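Illustration: Tripartite tricarboxylate transporter substrate binding protein.
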Amino acid sequence: MRSLAALACAALMTVTLPAAGQDYPSKPIRVLVPFAPGGVVDVTARLLTQKMSERLGWSFVVENRPGGNGFIAVTAAAKAAPDGHTLLMAHTGEFAGNPALFPDVPYELERDFKPITMVSDTPMLLVASKDAPFNTFAEVVAAAKEKPGTVGFSSPGNGSINHLAGEWLALQANVKLLHVPYKGGAPAAAAVAAGEVPLGVVAVPAVQTHLRTGRVKVIGLTTAQRTPYDKSWVTAAEGGIPGVDSSNWVGLFAPKGVPDAIVQKLYDEVKATLDNPEVRERFAQAGAVTGGMPPAEFLARIKTDAERYKEVVKKANVKPE
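Result:
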């Protein structure tokens, strides 16, 4: 009898999971964003949900919950009902940066979430003010070796992925740079354009205007691969600093208990949306490439990034604010 009961239970589960996927969504889907409107995560969430609504007729509500190093939005998503109607759009910092920086992060990736897919991936740039006395990675390294700890670079804030990318570059080049934090990517890029600081580690959207006006020049990329946005930009490895591969990805996550059938349905529909040429072009205009990797592959990428940043934080002795 017990065997029959177990078989019946297993059969019920196999029926229930696909049914959950077929009936989903049954109400508007809330997407929590750990940042204020206008940032890369918010823009990514709104572009994706808009295009999914157009394709599928699904209803979305993007809800911004900034503050607390992302803890507020991420913990709220982790505690949400596991029915797939509350999701999280987050970036490299929440799941690869924060665990490296903070001793007590109130969430854990594999305990609390199911990664759905990477939505976009944006390389970061090492840029210099137009009057800075260097144009290449080699010249930056030479200047830093001549005056250790005096060549400054801006970032959107202490402990940001941009900050960690800058420290990673310095570690691999065996030099010491001076980190100058600002409150956001746009102010960090503006500081370089104004000559307040000679260097900056910034994402493409933050620096586009300054590149067009010629107030900022690109030293190169913090990624291992060149970007289709501008194929002339060299990687750090090509510039003589091997082993650096830091980008700012944005991904979609579901609370841990969401049925696999719903996660699979979300993945399928997000990927189909990202494969649309118009959507790809919209992301490309901001220097990003669209994602779409399967959940297991995305999880592996996050874990690799987390280990890399953990090592950077330790070696560079980066402390959270």
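Reading the tokens back as a structure: Residues 29-122+247-316 form a domain with the D-Maltodextrin-Binding Protein; domain 2 fold (CATH 3.40.190.150).
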